[in-house]
Each structure stands twice: as C-alpha cells, then as structure tokens.
TrEMBL record:
<comment type="similarity">
    <text>Belongs to the azoreductase type 2 family.</text>
</comment>
<dbReference type="InterPro" id="IPR005025">
    <property type="entry name" value="FMN_Rdtase-like_dom"/>
</dbReference>
<protein>
    <submittedName>
        <fullName>NAD(P)H-dependent oxidoreductase</fullName>
    </submittedName>
</protein>
<feature type="domain" description="NADPH-dependent FMN reductase-like">
    <location>
        <begin position="4"/>
        <end position="146"/>
    </location>
</feature>
<dbReference type="InterPro" id="IPR029039">
    <property type="entry name" value="Flavoprotein-like_sf"/>
</dbReference>
<dbReference type="Pfam" id="PF03358">
    <property type="entry name" value="FMN_red"/>
</dbReference>
<dbReference type="InterPro" id="IPR050712">
    <property type="entry name" value="NAD(P)H-dep_reductase"/>
</dbReference>
Length: 186
C-alpha cells in the first residue's frame, strides 16, 4: 500500500510562506501520496461542543488525520510560540483521549520565518503539545527555514532556494522512512 502523509499549515494567510513550503513537499518527494489537511474551518475548541463525533468540520479534520500514515506540520512562529489557530486544531485532534486522531501518529515539524531564528521556539511548543497528545514527533531531525523571503519566488509562490529544497527533501525522506519504525496503535 502506498503511504499517505497529511500536510497541515499553521497559518491561515493566503500568501503564507509556510503554505509555499508545504506546497513544495509533494514535488520534492513523489514516492508517496500527500493530502492537504485544512484547519481553517475548525471552530474554537470548546468542551461543550466536543461530544460524540463533534461538529462536522471537526469530524472531517479528525478523519483526515486518521486516514494518513503521518503528518507534516509546516508552521510559523507567533510571539515566540505556537500560532493559536494551530494549537486550536491540535486540541481538537487530541480528544477523545483513547481514540484521538493524533494518538500514536508520526509527526514531522517544519517552520519558516522571515526572521533569523527559524521558528525554533514555536517548534518547541508544538513538540510539547504533541507529546501530551501521545503523538510521536521525529526526534533526530529539525527543519528550520530562516529569512524565507529570500528563498521563495513570491509571485509564483514557489520555494526556489536550492539548498533549502535539498534540506527539505532530505527531511521529508527521513520522515517517511521513520514512519515505519513508529510503534503502531495495536
Ligand atoms: C510574527 N512573526 C514572528 N516571527 C518569528 O520568527 N518569531 C516570532 O515570534 C514572531 N511573532 C509574530 C507574531 C505575530 C502576531 C505575527 C503576525 C507575526 C512574523 C512571522 O514569522 C511572519 O509574519 C510570517 O510570514 C508568518 O508566517 P506565514 O503566514 O507567512 O506562513
């Protein structure tokens, strides 16, 4: 069976740099199938509406995560941390605890910023959140993209920097190999 990886972007912005980076992934590695998983229509997390299968956008989001063999999150850093929209989405995917979509899900982290510190701090927080959900996060590789405005073609919304393309490709390939080493749910 061909592996499937879901791509989640932690920015809702249409011209998001992180969305451009996510869009480059399927063209860098076409050994598997990729699926974009949107977080844009999720309601704000509220336990009062988190019962049964939950609201319809939440159901679709959870099912999309359950269908794929792994997830790569491509996210910006806001105020030295995880963007609220992404935290909201991860919280929705963390319940109900025993059957949560993120439980035992292999996750890779990528982040891009116009700044020079490559989203280190937001990735730390995302990792911490994912550990609480019992997801597995690729432990031995990090993928930080700094000064991203110099690495893309803004008009065509493409990742053009050769070195970054090479690193990203290597990261994705490592992630795909690692998926097979993650203990399965059963
Ligand atoms: C930012 N930005 C930012 N960048 C960074 O490297 N560290 C940070 O702590 C922050 N903080 C921050 C807070 C808020 C509220 C905004 C709106 C932005 C800048 C951020 O990296 C930049 O806007 C990116 O372009 C956002 O990612 P997308 O939307 O282009 O993917």
């Amino acid at each position: 069976r061909t592996k499937k990886v879901g791509l989640i972007v932690g920015s809702l912005r249409e011209n998001s740099f992180n969305r451009m980076i996510a869009a480059a992934i399927p063209e860098l590695d076409d050994s598997i199938v990729y699926e974009s998983i949107s977080i844009a229509d999720l309601p704000l997390y509220n336990e009062d509406i988190d019962h049964g299968d939950g609201p319809e956008p939440v159901q679709r989001f959870r099912e999309a995560i359950k269908r794929v063999d792994g997830i790569i999150i491509v996210s910006p850093e806001y105020n030295s941390g995880i963007p609220g929209v992404l935290k909201n989405a991860l919280d929705w995917a963390s319940t109900p605890t025993k059957t949560a979509a993120l439980r035992r899900k292999p996750v890779g982290l990528v982040g891009a910023t116009p700044g020079v510190k490559g989203t280190i701090l937001s990735q730390q927080q995302i990792r911490q959140t994912l550990e609480a959900t019992q997801a597995f996060v690729l432990p031995f590789q990090k993928m930080y993209i700094s000064q991203v405005m110099d690495k893309v073609d803004l008009e065509r919304r493409l990742l053009t920097d050769e070195a970054t393309r090479k690193y990203l490709k290597r990261y994705v390939q490592q992630f795909i190999l690692w998926i097979d080493q993650v203990p399965s749910l059963d």
